[in-house]
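Private note to self, pasted from the team thread so I don't lose it. Backbone tokens:
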């Protein structure tokens, strides 16, 4: 698993807003995120990051991290800025603020994929995991987005996202989710097993015990052409580059640099990034605080329970079919 000689960033995961209007049970936001990471991403920092990443073969930008992106009023214009540069643009939202006006703005800006976090196969399970009864609201918002997109001949897609709560009855959850969400809204969907956010939360079941082998291997993320950037950062900084999306709840531990004043090249070639890569190459996972208890170190292809999204597969980036993390894992 050699370290790439040439810096390549094909996918950029860029958070627009660090706070959220929900406190979902399966998300570290529910127990309180560090204050410095609750900020909105300022427009000048957004521009700097996109323009810098363009130098390294950027193909796709996903406007997500953990916070709710629709709380950033610049979101539609940020989508437009990305699309005008010939890039794919994706975002991940809980859908509660997906009004008709915002839907039209995002479709007009030509967003490629809008991913909706809708965990809960019926109303009761939705309330349990998403913290509020927005079941009908979000279903109608998704259905409306699909209809508005069709009305104007748009190419935007909606991908629903569910996490299985009861492993032993996963087939039941899949069946209910297909009926209550997929068939009702006419959107595509993907259903996964839950994960433990680098050991930060207790899932209803232990993914590591579901694997055929207890041996750990690199998840591949430190070597893949993907950069994860938070809206906030340590102190007064914005645009913190973190090791991966799973460090949510312990963001400050995973900060590798800040793009409000550093370049992507400086951060990726820096000592913190190189130590992360070395630890994964040498399988010294316990030396990295946010990797030590992460269940992504276990190979579990069954964690993708069901999807009707073309080419969706375990190990592949949810944003770019061009990136397969399995290419970068150590066996």
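Design output:
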């Amino acid at each position: 698993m050699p370290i790439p000689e040439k810096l390549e960033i094909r996918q950029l995961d860029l958070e627009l807003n660090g706070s959220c209007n929900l406190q979902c049970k399966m998300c570290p936001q529910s127990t309180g995120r560090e204050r410095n990471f609750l900020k909105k991403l300022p427009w000048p920092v957004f521009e700097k990051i996109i323009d810098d990443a363009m130098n390294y073969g950027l193909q796709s930008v996903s406007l997500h991290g953990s916070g709710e992106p629709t709380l950033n009023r610049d979101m539609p214009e940020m989508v437009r800025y990305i699309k005008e540069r010939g890039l794919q643009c994706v975002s991940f939202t809980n859908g509660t603020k997906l009004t008709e006006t915002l839907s039209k703005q995002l479709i007009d800006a030509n967003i490629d994929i809008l991913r909706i976090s809708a965990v809960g196969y019926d109303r009761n399970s939705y309330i349990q995991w998403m913290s509020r009864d927005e079941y009908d609201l979000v279903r109608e918002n998704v259905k409306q987005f699909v209809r508005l997109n069709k009305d104007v001949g748009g190419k935007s897609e909606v991908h629903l996202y569910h996490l299985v709560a009861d492993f032993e009855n996963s087939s039941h959850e899949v069946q209910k989710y297909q009926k209550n969400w997929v068939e009702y809204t006419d959107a595509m969907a993907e259903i996964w097993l839950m994960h433990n956010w680098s050991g930060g939360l207790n899932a209803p079941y232990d993914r590591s015990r579901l694997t055929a082998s207890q041996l750990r291997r690199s998840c591949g993320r430190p070597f893949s052409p993907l950069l994860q950037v938070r809206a906030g950062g340590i102190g007064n900084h914005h645009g913190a580059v973190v090791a991966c999306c799973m460090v949510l709840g312990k963001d400050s531990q995973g900060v590798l640099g800040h793009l409000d004043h550093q370049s992507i090249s400086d951060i990726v070639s820096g000592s913190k990034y190189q130590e992360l890569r070395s630890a994964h190459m040498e399988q010294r996972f316990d030396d990295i605080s946010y990797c030590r208890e992460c269940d992504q170190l276990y190979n579990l292809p069954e964690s993708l329970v069901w999807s009707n999204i073309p080419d969706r597969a375990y190990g592949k980036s949810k944003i770019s079919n061009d990136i397969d993390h399995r290419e970068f894992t150590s066996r």
